[in-house]
Amino acid sequence: MKTNSELVSNRKAGHDYEILDTFEAGIVLLGTEIKSLRNNGGALQDSYVDVRNSGLWLLNCSIAPYSFGNIHNHEEKRERKLLMHKREIEKLARLKAEKGLQIIPLALYFNKKGIVKVRIATAKGKKAYDKRSSIKEREDTRAIQRALKNEGS
Question: What is the pTM assigned to this prediction?
Answer without folding.
Answer: 0.76
